[in-house]
Design brief:
The chain is of the alpha/beta class. Helices cover 26% and strands 25% of the residues.
Length: 346
Amino acid sequence: MNAAVISRQGNPVAPNIQAVKDWPEPGAPARGEARLRVEATALNHMDLWVGRGLPGIPLTWPRISGCDVCGTVESVGEGVDASWVGRRVIMNAAVRQPDRVLPDDPPGSTLAPEYELLGEHHHGGHCQFFNAPVAQLAPVGDADPTEAAAFGLTFLTAWGMLRKAELRPGQSVLVTGIGGGVATAAMKIAKHLGCPVTVTSRHAWKLEKAQQLGADHVVLDKGEDWSRDARAVTNKRGFDVAVDSIGKATHLWCVKSLARGGAYVTCGATTGADATTDLARVFWNQLRILGSTMGSQDEFREIVALFRAGKLKPVVDSVHPWENARQAWTRIEAGDQFGNVVLVWK
């Protein structure tokens, strides 16, 4: 079958991407699985991490990444209702792992779920056919496959972040690094909730694009502390929520931009995890520092319901034939995209 394959580990990743026509097809769907004829897949920063190698995760190459898949169910395995056949679906790549059960463990009342990611820990969906756990799927009706593929992981991640931050309608939101998939999704969700949104970027053209899409205020990131400029748009009150996936380069400035009781929520650290913070500001202003990883299947179905209802729509940066997969990887690796980069499989 056709597939976009990471041929070997390396950095940069794009030169190692090969579009092949002879990758083995998956077998018949196992119990609890559905076989998808893939129509479109979207790239995420995860596709770069897989190509570079992930500490603590034993990956082998060549391998297929890809956690955002839109396709039509062709057949189902044992135990799966036949009504799935013929449905256009998207996939939640975050598969919850069973909680351990040991006699001396304390109650798990606040224990966060552990996930493995289809497309990271396991081969992913950048291919012509894919067998997915039916429990991870959600129907999208007759949605445009390119938009549906671009919606899944980024909107689930942003939805989970804003839920953890307990965002209320009308509260003020700061989003760093606008143009990335999660950042644009967070902006869209916050605007849907009636929240004023301020975004940052190192690129003036991305800020202009964000304003066209509804951002209320923009801050140009010149590599220096921009927190004073950000707070100025709130009349020095500060933001209720800061959404950040950049990490080291922006963490402290986000913390300094928050209002009393505000929440800094992170889903990644593309510039490094060893950030400097301000603990005095954290305790005095009673700030909340929150980590968020993807989301549950219930959260996935919640956010997909808003997509099906036409309330939320992803930003698609560009659409590439699967044969041009290397070009798509090159675009995200250079950081030139605004929104999601999508491959189509025809």
